[in-house]
Specification:
single chain, 888 residues, alpha/beta, eight-stranded mixed beta sheet, eight-stranded parallel beta barrel, 33 strands, 46% helix
Length: 888
């Protein structure tokens, strides 16, 4: 972490504002802004992120003078409130809550009711004339403090609470009497002593110091790190700590706690959305401990507070110009706000809110685009349940996060994180906790037995675009046996189920999913992006169907058409093998003549789908042995035929094929005879492909009146002489075809830059190239010196998790290394040909972070898989806007 010793460590709430967000965190900034707006918030102070960072840098040792500063801030808070932390008369109770710069809901720790103890509980009850509230606060504090600060396993307290309720024959915590709660306090003290070997500290100031330290430490918990990595949040920011005077939602039936959003976070609709609980504290709602009530019902039981809340919601959305996620408490009928932040929302909601705010005149289009993340568009491009499925749901819960999920049941986050890498899983929990984050990330969806629309499971799932059905109270979960029971049906781990997060339905089987439907909000947002972006966006497509889908999704051409996939088809493989096995040039040419019309047919379909747009056809790239059987398998076949006295002709054919497999076998085929090297050895192959391309283009033009703009790309060039020779072969074939047909057709010939040497000598290669296209998949392998298949199954995940590298370089480009090669290749190529067209056709063409780099480097276009085209269009616009913002 990078420390800032010059930064202040403490701010009273009245001193804060939004400009200090990097120091006082999102929560602290929100509270300070609300206070300046005259909205009722509890008083308090903030320990800054600088204190956290400096503590982490010092291996957990607090900076000199920090505790003194905290005690000074506490003294000022005591003076303002007229209360004393740990005081027997008018005791001050505080909450100690994390507050990261970027919202990380549920990932870090909170301690409530700090200050209640043996010396203060009686006076707290007497002052409020509500001893039950005082003892309820005490038992809550012991459980939360013991778990968060001292590390007592949470089930220790949960088991004792459940046991006491069972003995008393009650269902809800609120049904326990004062005497019950007094007994529970003593039980909690006893089990804490058994777990720790000592009593919990009784001094309130010591508790405060330890609680602040626990929040600092929670910044670096595994769940927090997993969440930050999943959401591209830096590990270096640290968290602020907010110490606030407690307001109590558990003081009886005129008190409440709740969470609300100024718009529906699932759909984006401008409607009332939220939940509350009477006689409860905030953790009861977000943790799903009790199933809450719809916010609209609050008008009947707490009309004044409800009216104040509705008015405040409108004020906050107008102030922040965005949908707000608000946490509130009502104490004895008076409303207090504990937090406001820009609300986590589904992808569909993000687009609708952005579009609506523009139409309402609140935001400009450019501002609206910057409120949306590219990955949110990705979430909308996932399948949904076929509406014609005709199946009956086995149960129904709350539709907490929309979308469809099909997967095998798993009952804990660890299993989900392990199995979910290789197979689709659905995580089923009684209720999720922040520690489940690793499982939620890889799961297809989440199902919980308890919790509401604003529970932890719902909020996290919505933010990640995961379908979630919460509060399905009819399900019974046995984590020991790993079973899920609904009525008389029992499901075991691995059994397939389907979740419909849009309706709350749960199905006891795998239902068919249908492709996503792009709605008007999606089209409007991406349309805005098209008006702003500079980069062109093409698609990687090898079939007419893929090409048509790409065009439908806004592709401006095809940046990579791989011809080898056409060779792999079952009806073409015999002719391809005949070509490979040919002993003479004449025999090989004869075999290629059989393949040519097949290639032409493929190209015609693609050129028809893309007429009027550019199509870049990459000539044959993989080594020839990929079209032949595996060496081991073919050897075993020959051996079996020999041992069993197989047919002589069949054995002879098998031996001939084995001989060719051995002849073409290479120890490292990725760096062997492939790409242009294959064309250099067998020039009749690129010649045939060039003829097929030209014939297809002419046929489409004659039939359709228009054809695609044809580009032919020579792969794996390392030397300018290779491109020169291959270009001559291709151009000779093109000229012969056009002369024979009596037609004219402009065909551009360029190359892929996928080797470090090619990037270094790009000025030499550019002499013979009409365009460059960086094949960043292979460039990453050759530039870093790693095999993708081996690395991704081996050390790469450890490198990412241990922060050796910031991300998998095959998913998001290595900016300094491979990005540096792209820059060198582009600059040197354009030094010879200033107008040289340069693009990217690796998978990085659909990665938003990589697209930002390609925009910065001045490339002309990116090319990606068809379903990532809208994401690339959007990301290219964000690159323009973000670059402008960074320049301001």
């Amino acid at each position: 972490m990078t420390g800032n010793t010059a930064a202040r460590y403490l701010y009273d709430m009245s001193e804060g504002n939004a400009s200090l967000k990097s120091l006082i965190g999102g929560k602290g900034a929100g509270l300070a802004e609300m206070k300046s707006m005259g909205i009722p918030v509890p008083d308090g102070f903030t320990v800054t992120t600088a204190a956290c960072v400096d503590t982490m840098n010092a291996a957990g040792a607090w900076p000199e003078g920090l505790w003194d500063d905290i005690q000074d801030s506490l003294a000022r808070l005591e003076e303002r409130t007229g209360r004393t932390l740990g005081g027997k008369d008018k005791p001050l109770l505080v909450s100690v809550r994390s507050g990261a710069v970027t919202s990380m809901p549920g990932m870090m720790d909170t301690i409530l009711n700090l200050g209640v103890g043996d010396d203060t509980v009686e006076s707290l009850g007497a002052e409020s004339d509500n001893p039950r509230f005082a003892w309820d606060s005490y038992r809550r504090f012991l459980a939360m403090y013991g778990e968060v600060v001292e590390g007592v396993p949470p089930h220790v307290y949960e088991d004792e609470l459940t046991s006491l309720k069972a003995r008393r024959g009650v269902q809800q915590d609120t049904d326990l009497t004062v005497a019950d709660l007094q007994e529970l306090v003593e039980i909690f003290k006893r089990v804490s002593r058994q777990e720790l070997g000592r009593d919990l500290p009784g001094d309130a100031r010591e508790q405060l110091k330890r609680a602040i330290d626990a929040v600092f430490l929670s910044w670096d918990t595994p769940r927090a790190r997993v969440y930050r990595r999943a959401n591209d949040i830096s590990d270096d920011l640290g968290t602020a700590v907010n110490v606030m005077q407690m307001v109590f939602g558990n003081r009886g039936e005129t008190s409440a706690t709740g969470v609300c959003f100024t718009r529906n976070p699932s759909t984006g609709a401008k409607e009332l959305y939220g939940e509350f609980l009477l006689n409860a504290q905030g953790e009861d709602v977000v943790a799903g401990i009790r199933t809450p009530r719809a916010l609209a019902e609050m008008e009947d039981v707490l009309p004044q507070a409800y009216g104040d809340l509705i008015s405040t919601m409108a004020d906050l959305e107008a102030y922040y110009k965005d949908m707000q996620d608000i946490e509130f408490t009502v104490e004895d009928g008076t409303l207090y706000l504990l937090q406001t932040r820009n609300g986590k929302r589904t992808a569909a909601a993000a687009l609708k809110v952005a579009r609506d705010l523009v139409e309402e005149g609140v935001l400009r289009r450019e501002e609206a685009l910057q409120r949306i993340q590219a990955r949110q568009l990705d979430q909308l491009l996932h399948p949904a349940i076929d509406p014609e499925h005709g199946k009956t749901a086995i149960t129904k819960g709350l539709p907490a996060s929309p979308g469809a999920a099909v997967g095998g049941l798993v009952f804990d986050a660890e299993t989900a994180a392990t199995r979910g890498v290789n197979e689709p899983v659905v995580l089923v929990r009684y209720e999720t906790t922040p520690d489940d984050i690793a499982g939620v990330i890889v799961a297809q969806g989440v199902l919980t037995a308890h919790g509401g629309m604003t529970s932890h499971a719902a909020v996290v799932a919505r933010g990640m675009g995961k379908p979630c059905v919460a509060g399905a109270q009819a399900i019974r979960i046995n984590t020991g046996d790993k079973t899920l029971t609904v009525g008389d049906r029992v499901f075991h781990e691995g059994d397939l189920i389907t979740l419909d997060g849009s309706t709350g339905d749960v199905f006891g089987e795998a239902l068919t999913l249908v492709p996503p439907q792009v709605n008007e909000d999606f089209e409007a947002i991406v349309g805005w992006a098209d008006q702003i972006r500079r980069l062109g966006v093409r698609a990687n497509a090898d079939t007419a169907e893929d090409a048509a889908k790409a065009r439908e999704l806004g592709a401006e051409g095809i940046g990579l058409c791989r011809t080898e996939h056409m060779f792999m088809a079952a009806d073409r493989l015999p002719a391809v093998r005949e070509m490979i096995l040919a002993d003479t040039i004449e025999d090989r040419a004869e075999a290629l003549e059989k393949i040519l019309p097949m290639q032409q047919e493929d190209f015609e379909g693609i050129f028809t789908a893309m007429k009027g747009l550019p199509v870049t056809v990459r000539l044959l790239d993989p080594p020839l042995h990929e079209f032949l059987p595996d060496l081991v398998e073919q050897s075993l076949l020959v051996q079996r035929l020999q041992l069993t006295g197989g047919d002589a002709d069949e054995l002879d054919r098998a031996r001939t094929l084995l001989s060719s497999v051995k002849r073409l076998h290479e120890q490292n085929p990725m760096l062997g005879t492939r790409g242009c090297r294959l064309g250099m050895l067998y020039p009749e192959i690129p010649e045939m492909q060039a003829r097929a391309v030209v014939r297809a283009a002419l046929a489409v033009r004659e039939r359709e009146g228009e054809t695609a703009t044809v580009e032919i790309m020579i792969p794996l060039v390392a030397f300018a002489s290779e491109l020169k020779a291959q270009r001559e072969v291709v151009e000779r074939a093109i000229t012969e075809e056009l002369t024979s047909a009596g037609e004219e057709l402009e065909v551009h010939v360029g190359t892929m830059i996928e080797l470090p040497r090619a990037a270094i000598v790009a000025d030499q290669i550019a002499e013979y190239a009409d365009f460059f296209s960086f094949g960043t998949n292979d460039l990453t392998q050759t530039g870093i010196g790693i095999s993708r298949d081996d690395a991704e199954g081996g050390f790469l995940s450890a490198y990412v998790s241990e922060d050796v590298i910031p991300a998998n370089p095959f998913e998001s480009i290595d900016r300094d290394g491979i990005g540096g090669l792209v820059q060198i290749g582009t600059d040197r190529g354009r030094s010879v040909k200033p107008d040289l067209k340069v693009g990217v056709c690796g998978e990085h063409g659909g990665d938003p972070a990589s697209i930002h780099l390609f925009h910065t480097l001045g490339l002309d276009y990116v090319s990606c898989s068809p379903f990532r085209v809208p994401i690339a269009r959007f990301a290219a616009a964000r690159a323009v806007l973000d670059s402008a913002s960074s320049d301001d």
